[in-house]
Amino acid sequence: xxxxxxxxxxxxxxxxxxxxxxxxxxxxxxFRIAGRPASARLFRAYGLxxxxxxxxxxxxxxxxxxxxxxxxxxxDEVASGAHDELFRVDALQGGAGTSTNMCANEVIANxxxxxxxxxxxxxxSPRCDPLxxxxxxxxxxxxxxxxxxxxxxxxxxETAAAAERxxxxxxxxxxxxxxVVTVGRTELQNAVPMTLGAVFSGLAxxxxxxxxxxxxxxxxxxxxxxxxxxxGTGLAAxxxxxxxxxxxxxxxTGYGLSRAxxxxxxxxxxxxxAETAGILSAMACDLEKIANDLRLLARxxxxxxxxxxxxSSIMPGKVNPVICEAxxxxxxxxxxxxxxxxxxxxxxxxxxxxxxxxxxDSLIEALGILTRGADTLAEHVKGIHADAESCKRRLDxxxxxxxxxxxxxxxxxxxxxLERFDARADRSINVRRFLESxxxxxxxxxxxxxxxxxxxxxxxxxxxxxxxxxxx
Length: 472
Fold this sequence. Notes:
The protein is mainly alpha-helical.
């Protein structure tokens, strides 16, 4: 048996057990551009927003207790993901998110009607209306940005936790490799000696900043415009509702949400979302840099990456750094999504951000990619081993290690030493053995020790009294 629903466009027969309504079904027909629905996580956040509004309206006497209870139960189901399959509106929808808001209104209202019917006999059960009850004292223009921020805060916490796990994995390797001396590289050329632990410490610090930035980014999203209705003036909403709805949402989410001091501002401007995009883009840059550095360190023989799959369909035995490559691509994709999110914010006009659906789609996808990318890389890092022998061979053969002896030789003295090395008769002698013959094995060992290379600067012990080749 069908029910007939009406809107300003006309009528539509809808199956009686269908929780979606005329507005949602029209939107599904109209928007088929992205070819995939908007994120279910946004829909779940909408469940929390709608419950906060229902609770507030009930407390203020605008909703009957039974009706509010049924709406709240339906909202809990939406927030838990129980009705994710009903959220099919295309990600690229017009109307600044109106279709998403109406989908939430209709699913919650029709589910609440079912709940009410189970509590009443016969035809006496009241019907919950999507607009008159679920959307009471609200607009898309205040509920959509609020739901988006609630969604993003939850995801930002997950991303910050993933950054923390990556930082911890890198710090573990920093400690493990503290005694391995290698050659630092600048401009993709050998530079000066340093420990492999110090190399990983730099990577860990970058991940640590990402952890801090993503966690702190939440502060920019805590101001919401719930109660501002269409343009932020609160038109058609009771003053008490405007002041209390956000308090109810804060209690439901456990997030430190607050009503924006200027609701017109928060309805019209999305710069906090653009700022979030910038912070996520910075983390993406770090993921790319870390993954590429690991790839280069493996190529140069400093480390051994875990072998996770065969690398070629034609070259037997080839193993590629596929995890690093995947994470680099994740970083590139994230940065493009963040640039797109910033562009949508800039395209807002006057009292609304028409393109918030694309902002939401971009940021939600970016956060998901970042979280999974960081976790994937963290697990990979745990399996990395140092190739200490390879590091030692490169170190002992590298001319640049003479830089470590500048405090006792000076620049000219070090240059002269390298000239004598180049003129040596025995070409089998590497740089380290030559330095030992010139400066003494004890001095070379001390200067190139992990402890000396890890100290900040040098304390000085005075010039050597004599270096072979010099005039005593």
